[in-house]
Structures are given as structure tokens and as C-alpha cells.
């Protein structure tokens, strides 16, 4: 079985993937790592065009990142990267299916419009997680349930507010797209741990 887990940053994809991996004793792969494999095959100018988020995002200067780019620019950059990386990711998923391997693939690159081709495959289970409400996302940034390393690097409250706008924009996008393509969508902004457990139950039953 291949488990595809998409959705917004800070929505719980990594936490769910680790929990599912431990429960099923199968490996997990993030599309963030797949990006690093693909990048060297693009020349610098083409890379900047096809992977705009890679150039925009700097973990060492994350506050400046959210001050410089608005929510729409950030989401659109990830959409461009997703479409660029998709042929390779799709080939990987197809290969794993052909080899009858059990695997979890998670990441923001798994757009509903792209993975719709796997929807009818009985050996693929698909789920999306996201948060939508800015205030709920803001509260989550200050709780231990949200342990993303990049979030911990944000120090300024103004920047955190800008980051919540970005995360909300991702959530709105994924909610709209999952409805369009009729995928399972879980909003994790309310009772995060319970929603993660609901997601595990959905994927394993």
C-alpha cells in the first residue's frame, strides 16, 4: 500500500507520517527531500524559474522571508515547484506500486490536481491535512503540538502573524482543491491530536 499525505505546512503531515510509519513499520519519504534529488538536473536560471520557493526561502533569515513575500506569492511558488517536481514524484510512486512496496510519501508537493490519477488505484490511500483559521494557527505556533523546526526559528511576533496568513492561504487552497477532486480532507486546527488519530484510522481501515 502507498500512503500519500498532502496538505499545508504546519498542518500535521510530518507528525501523521511518523505515527503511521511507526504503527505500520514502513518507511516514509518527504517530497522536501525529493526536491534535493531533482534540483541538480536544472541549470541555475531554469532552477530559479522552476523552483522559485527554493530561492525565496532562507531558514537562516526566515523573518525577512515572511516580510518580503506575501501569502499568495508563497503558495504560488510552491504550486510551481510541485508541478515541476511531479513527473519525478509520479514515477517514484509508480515504481513503488510496481514493486509492491509499502511506503508513505508526504509533502506539500502532493497537490490534489496532480495525484488525482492515483485516486482509483486500490493500492493507494490519499489524505490531506491543513489548518485554515489564522487565530487557530497562531495559537498552534505557541504549542508543543507544532514542532516544525522552521517555526521555532521565527522569533518576532509580527513575523509569526505573517506566517499564519501564509499557512491559512495554504489551508484554503487545499480545502478548495480537495473538494474539487473529492479527496478526504481533515482540518487539524481543532483538537490536533484527535484529528491525527482520526487520520491514522482513516488510512489504516
List the main descriptive attributes of the protein structure presented here.
5-stranded parallel β-sheet; Rossmann fold; 205 residues; single chain; alpha/beta; 11 helices; 11% strand; globular
Shape by Cα distribution: globular
Unreliable segments of 5+ consecutive residues: none
CATH architecture tag: 3-Layer(aba) Sandwich
**Considering DSSP H and I runs of 4 or more, what fraction of the residues is helical?**
55-70%
Q: Structural class per helix/strand content?
A: alpha/beta
Sheet of most strands: 5 strands, parallel
Output mean pLDDT: 91
| CATH fold category name | Rossmann fold
Q: Mind telling me the CATH superfamily name?
A: P-loop containing nucleotide triphosphate hydrolases
Strand residue content? 5-15%
The protein's oligomeric status is single chain
> What is the H-and-E element order?
EHEHHHHHEHEHHHEH
**CATH class bucket:** Alpha Beta
User: How many domain regions?
Assistant: 1
- According to DSSP, the number of beta strands is 5
